[in-house]
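Here's my example:
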Amino acid sequence: MKTPPDPNQDAQTLSIQLANQIINIANKNLEDGLSVEAIAAGVRHAAANFSAFAHHRTGGSEEQLGAIVEDFIQMFEYYLERHAPNET
């Protein structure tokens, strides 16, 4: 049985922990032979699907959509730089 999240942990810490769990699933699928492109597409699909669900579930407004997209772009740019091959 899984322990429920500690309500005292901040949302960012919990989101990073969840992201790491999803990355572990993606890495396992990569080890099992799925293509990196298919895995990335599936993760994007899941992120878009659940983000839309959460937006409507929390009564999100049209004005909030830009912030959600900007948040994704900022994270994507950060990880693009982080995963870029080292040029020495």
